[in-house]
Amino acid sequence: MPNISTNDHPRTNRAEINRANAQKSTGPRTEAGKQRSCLNALRHGLTGQTVVLPSDDLTAYQRHCQQLHDQYHPKNPMEVQLTQTLADLSWRLNRIAAIETNMLALGSWELSLTVDAEDEQMQEALTMAKAFRMQSQSFTNLSLHEHRLSLCFQKALKQLREIQAERATQEQSDMYSAARILQMHKNKNVPYNPVEDGFVFSNAEIETYIRRRDRDTQALRAA
Question: Quick check: 205 pLDDT over 90?
Answer without folding.
Answer: yes
